[in-house]
Amino acid sequence: GGYNNSATGEDAAIVGGASNTAGGTAAICLGGDNNTASGKRAIAAGHLAAATHSGAVVFGDATEATVRSSRANQFVVQHTDARKPGGGAWWAPADRRTMAAVEPFTAGLAALKAMKPMRYEHSGGLGVHSEGRKYVGMVAQDLEAIPEAAFMVQQDKVTPTGAASKDPAEQHRVVDPTALTYMLLNAVNDLAARVEALEKENAHLRALRH
Fold first, then answer.
1. pLDDT in tens, the chain (210 residues)
2. Which range of residues forms the domain containing residue 16?
3. Which string of DSSP letters, residue by residue, matches 170-200?
4. Global pTM?
5. Checking CA distances to 167, which of 19, 24, 84, 184 falls within 20 to 30 Å?
6. Claim to verify: residue 171 and residue 120 sit in the same structural domain
7. Residue 159 and residue 165 in contact, taking contact as beta carbons nearer than 8 Å
8. 197: in domain
9. 164 lies in a domain?
C-alpha cells in the first residue's frame, strides 16, 4: 500500500506510507515516509529512518533529520522521550543459571570521584537535535580517561556525521550508564564501612578518657 514505495528485497514488505524502500531480505517498513530498511530482517518506521544493518530496528520522528542504525541487532529511537507505565528501569535477565564468568564488580568511590557530569545540547550529529532542550550526562572521551569507567564507552561503526568508519579514533562513541548504579552501591558500602570504623575508633577514644 501507500505511494512510491519499493520493496525489492526477498520477502521484504512495506505496510504503507510514501517513498519507503525495503531492500533487505525479509526487511519491512512499517509506515511513514522516506524510510529505508536495507539490512536483513531490518525494520524502519516513522520519518527518515534508515535501518541499514541486519536485525536493526529504527524509529524516526517528525524532525527533518535522518536517524540511522550503526550496528547489527540495534534498536534506535529518534525521540527524546521514552516512557512506560509505572516508570522505573527496564527489566534485565539476571538468573544465575543463565550467567557465565560471574565475578565481583569492585569499581566505586574512586571512579565516581573522577567523573564530571555535564549539561549539554546535541549538536545535530547523527541526526540528533536538542531543539533547545538541555541534557545531563557524561562525555564519553572523559570516561575513557578513567581506567575503572572506560568499559562504559562503546564505539559505533560510524563517524558523528553518519559515515561508515573502521578507524576507532573517528568512530562515534556512546555511553552505557548502567554500571553507575552499582558503582554508587559500592561507594555507599565503602563509606558505610569507613563510618563504622570511625565510630568504633571514637568509642574507643571515649572509653580511654573515662
1. 799 999 999 999 999 999 999 999 999 999 999 999 999 999 999 999 999 999 999 999 988 888 889 889 999 998 777 788 888 888 889 999 999 999 999 999 999 999 999 999 988 777 677 778 899 999 999 999 999 999 999 988 888 887 888 898 999 899 999 999 999 999 999 999 999 999 999 999 999 987
2. 6-77
3. TS-EEE-THHHHHHHHHHHHHHHHHHHHHHH
4. 0.77
5. 24
6. yes
7. yes
8. no
9. yes
